[in-house]
């Protein structure tokens, strides 16, 4: 039976690109590992944030559309994106969110305490202490490896047909159902990060795509051969799957499950050091070959951005 190791990446739609970078790099301390463009809409950036090396399971990606309409979080989407932080670092993150005037609350799910808050454009995020997952060696501002976000804890799925999505997660994606309560069903993959999926059991209003919503969730395939096996496997279960699409840093296939959540299966290789060294990840605008001749035009069209150390500004330095 096919079994994914867990989440490869999550992609969301947000607003102004500088606000996006300030929040995920400046506040959360994630590394901007790739600055490129939306291959299907080259006038729009595509940012990738993750751990120090951009490991699968740590990557959140964004299409930032300044002045775009606000979306609505609801069924057919990833409703909440939880991140894993080192055990013992929760109080640090409470203090950090307070320092940046970010409202948060605490909630409990399956015996774990989650720090819940929204990003600057309305995405629902959580932080939860997890022992699993390697240490993120990236330091930025006051965020050091001992407290840095490791990667995804998993995802909370809002499905239009929870029973069908539950069957898909176990029978197709190979996750194991490990717990259930009145509100959620919990599933687990065999990976050490991005491995816990909580599926909301209640059906609510369908989500509307726009700023502050997740566009899709991507699952891990070991390599190109494994991905082709996944494509056949998903097709055999009655889902329409796209052809393989080259995304430069991984290959991707897509399908929409019965609960209306858009799923992707992405290859672990070649990774984000494909066109930059580890030391220089995210430093330059990287373009696929077909857009290289438009570089000068794109540099004039795209909104200028920079990765800023916001801790200096808070301290008045």
From TrEMBL:
PROSITE patterns referenced in this protein's UniProt entry, alphabetically: VOC
Limits of the VOC domain: 6-130, 151-268
InterPro entries: Extradiol_RC_dioxygenase, Glyas_Bleomycin-R_OHBP_Dase, Glyas_Fos-R_dOase_dom, VOC_core
Protein name per the record: Glyoxalase family protein
């Amino acid at each position: 039976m096919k079994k994914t190791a867990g989440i490869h990446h999550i992609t969301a739609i947000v607003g102004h690109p500088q606000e996006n970078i300030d929040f995920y790099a400046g506040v959360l301390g994630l590394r901007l590992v790739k600055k490129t463009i939306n291959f299907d809409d080259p006038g729009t950036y595509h940012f990738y944030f993750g751990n120090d090396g951009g490991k699968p399971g740590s990557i959140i990606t964004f299409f930032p559309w300044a002045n775009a309409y606000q979306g609505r979080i609801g069924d057919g989407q990833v409703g909440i994106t939880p991140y894993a932080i080192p055990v013992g670092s929760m109080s640090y993150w409470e203090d950090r969110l307070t320092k940046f005037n970010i409202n948060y609350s605490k909630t409990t799910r399956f015996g774990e305490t989650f720090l819940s808050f929204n990003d600057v454009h309305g995405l629902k995020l959580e932080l939860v202490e997890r022992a699993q997952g390697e240490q993120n060696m990236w330091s930025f501002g006051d965020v050091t490896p001992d407290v840095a976000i490791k990667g995804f804890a998993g995802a909370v799925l809002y499905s239009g047909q929870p029973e069908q999505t539950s069957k898909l997660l176990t029978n197709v994606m190979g996750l194991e159902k490990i717990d259930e309560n009145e509100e959620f069903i919990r599933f687990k993959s065999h990976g050490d990060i991005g491995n816990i999926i909580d599926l909301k059991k209640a059906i609510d209003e369908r989500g509307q795509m726009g700023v502050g919503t997740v566009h899709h969730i991507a699952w891990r395939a070991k390599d190109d051969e494994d991905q082709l096996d996944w494509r056949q496997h998903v097709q055999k279960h009655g889902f329409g799957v796209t052809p393989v699409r080259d995304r430069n840093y991984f290959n991707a296939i897509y399908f929409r499950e019965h609960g209306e959540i858009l799923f992707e299966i992405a290859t672990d290789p070649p990774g984000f050091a494909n066109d930059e060294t580890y030391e220089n990840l995210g430093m330059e605008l990287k373009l696929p070959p077909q857009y290289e001749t438009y570089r000068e035009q794109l540099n004039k069209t795209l909104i200028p951005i920079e990765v800023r150390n916001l801790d200096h500004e808070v301290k008045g330095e």
